[in-house]
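Assemble and predict.
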Amino acid sequence: KRGKRPAGAPDKALAKPVTKIGVVGAGLMAQQFALLFVRRLKVPVVITDISQEQIDKGLAYIHGELDKLLAKGKLSQDDANRLKALVSGTTDKADFADADWIIEAIYENLEAKQNVFAEIEKYASDTAVLATNTSSLSVEQIGAKLAHPERLVGFHFFNPVAVMPLIEVVKTPQTDDETLSTAMVVAKKLFKTAVITADTPGFVVNRVLAKVLGEAMHAVDTGTPFEVVNTASAPLGLPMTPFELLELVGLKVGAHVLDTHHAAFPDRFFESRNLHSLAEHGRIFERDGKGKIKGFDKKAVEIV
Ligand code: 3HC
C-alpha cells in the first residue's frame, strides 16, 4: 500500500516547490493555519489583512501559541525564536511578489474573494499557486476574475486547525495537475490527510455537518426547547453538541454554511432565523458552572 496515490491525485513529481507563503486575511482560521505552515514548512509566512489591528492580533496569536509549545517542551527556545522570525505581517500585498503559495481566508463573500484574487494576481509571480479556504462558496466562481484560474485550488481546513486531521483539496474544472499536486504535497507536509473533492456546495464535510447542525437549529426554530435538542444529541457520540460546534466555527460562518446549502438545495436544507439572529447580535450561548452550553443568551433574540 505504501506510496499509493490518494484518489484522483496527480503525480507528486509535478508539485511546485513552496519556499514562501502568503496568507490573505488574519482572522480565526488564517491565524491558525499560518501557525501550522510556519511550524511544518519552516519557510517565511507573510500575513496580510486590510486591518493592521487584525494583523497584530494574528501575529500575537501565533507568538502566543509558539510560547505555549515552548512551555510544553514541544519546541526549543531557538526553534521558537526562529519560527517567530519567519512570520511577518503587512497591509501591502506587494510583499507577495516572491511567494509561491498564496492562500486566502477572508470573510465568506463571493465578490470580496473574487476581488482579492484579482488583486493578488497583479502582485503574485506567474508561477505562484493560489488557494482558498472557503467553507462553502464555489471555488470556480471565486476564481472567475483570474487570468489564470488553472492555478487556483480549494484548500479547506477544519477548526481547530492544529488538531483536525483533514484537508479538503477542492478541484475545479480548471485546476491543473501542477496546482493539485502542489496542494497534495503541502497537505502532506502539514501532516494532514488530504482528500480531493469536487467543487460542489459544502464539498463533503460541510454538506454532512450542515445537515446535523441545520436539523438541530431547525428543531429549536420550530419549538423544541434548546436543552432538549442539546441533551438529545449526546447519543450521536460527537465530540461536541451541534450548538457547541456552531460556536466553535463561529455563528456567522455557521449561518453562511446553512444559507449556502439552503440556496443550493432548498428541499434538503433549512435556513435558521434564530441562528441568523444570534450571529447578527454576535451573541453566544449561556454556559453552566462547568462551562457546558445550557441555553441561548436570553438577551440575544426572539427565540421561537
Ligand atoms: N488550538 C490548538 N490546539 C487545540 C485546540 C485549539 N483551539 N483545541 C484543542 N486543542 C488541542 C489541545 O491542546 C490538546 O492537545 P494536547 O493533547 O497536545 O495537549 C488536544 O487538542 C485535545 O484537547 P482537549 O483535551 O482540551 O479537548 P478535547 O479532547 O475535548 O477535544 C476538540 C477538543 C478537538 C476541539 C474536540 O472537541 C473536537 O474534535 N470537536 C469537534 C471539532 C470539529 O468537528 N471541527 C470541525 C468544524 S467544521 C469546520 O471547521 C469547517 C468550516 O468550514 C465551518
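Strands lie at 21-24, 45-48, 87-90, 101-104, 129-132, 152-156, 166-171, 193-198, 285-287, 293-296.
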